Amino acid sequence: MRIWILIGMMGFSAVAHAQQGGTAYELQSLRADLQLLQQRVGELALTVEQLNRDNAALQAKAGQSYVTLEQMNRAIADLNHSIRASLAEQKNETLSQVSAQLVKLGKQTQAAIDAVAKNQATRPVIQTNFSEDFPKEGINYTVQSGDSLAIIAKKNNAKQQDIINANKISDPSRIRVGQTLFIPQGK
Q: pTM, whole model, 2 decimals?
């Protein structure tokens, strides 16, 4: 209210000054100043109203209750306990699943071992004793595609058992292409 009174007084003072012989220019300048001052006072009034609203909102918030530090610590402790319990449960569940997988894998492994053992029992006996009773003279022969010990013996007029003994071949069905064999000849 005081500001409006001051503005009014300034207006009257300007009019009196103009009547006392002031120029029209000065009067016009004072009117412009008065308008700017009125605009600024209006802006300040809006700012004060906003500050009053903000203050009222803060006072309303101050009336609300807040959590104490003790309550916060208790809530954190409860949350930590809950997390630990959940992790322990997950760990037990994972261990249970791993245990079940290990049992299953153990059974599969045992079945595979049993199958291998069964197949070993039905395999022919592999010769591990070789006789030195074969001709010591002969030729070297490189195994060709399609060769077997029987074919090689026939091609070279040799005995299959002499070739086996001379080369210490434990499994006659396992000769390889490119393998060099000694073929005993002349007995």
A: 0.35
